[in-house]
Amino acid sequence: MAFEQTQTPPTVRVAAIQAEGCYFDLPAAVEKTYRFIEEAASKGCDLIAFPELWIPMYPGWIWCVPYPLRTATPVDFNMVTEYMKSSLRRDSPETNTIRQCASSNNIAVALGYSENDNHPLYLS
């Protein structure tokens, strides 16, 4: 829809989240996301934006342990397994909880997360 020069464009109120996430704890991450969505909506926001990889966060040392000694074992498989388990699946109950929260609060959500698509991971 084009606006005449005399019309004022619509205002969009945006909440940008800058907070500590919940490393490798999917239920806690979903709960924290839910609370932020509700708070932003209660303050009249139309959109809430979360950081890249908000769920499950991204530990920079995941691919080389012990950090920062990069000559050690290249991968901590236990940590990678936990990372995968804490990543969201698109059709999961956790994702549906976030969707329902956004819908019931009438707010758009830009959520950065690690998507587990039957084990391959994607930045979504």
TrEMBL record:
It catalyses: a nitrile + 2 H2O = a carboxylate + NH4(+). Pfam families: CN_hydrolase (PF00795). The keyword Hydrolase applies. Keywords: Acyltransferase, Hydrolase, Transferase. Residues 12-124 form the CN hydrolase domain. Gene3D superfamilies: Carbon-nitrogen hydrolase (3.60.110.10). InterPro entries: C-N_Hydrolase, C-N_Hydrolase_sf, Nitrilases_CHs. It is an enzyme of class 3 (hydrolase). It comes from the Eukaryota. Its EC number is 3.5.5.1. GO terms for molecular function: acyltransferase activity; nitrilase activity. The keyword Transmembrane does not apply. PANTHER family: ARYLACETONITRILASE, NITRILASE. Belongs to the carbon-nitrogen hydrolase superfamily. Nitrilase family. This is nitrilase. The lineage of its organism: Eukaryota, Fungi, Dikarya, Ascomycota, Pezizomycotina.
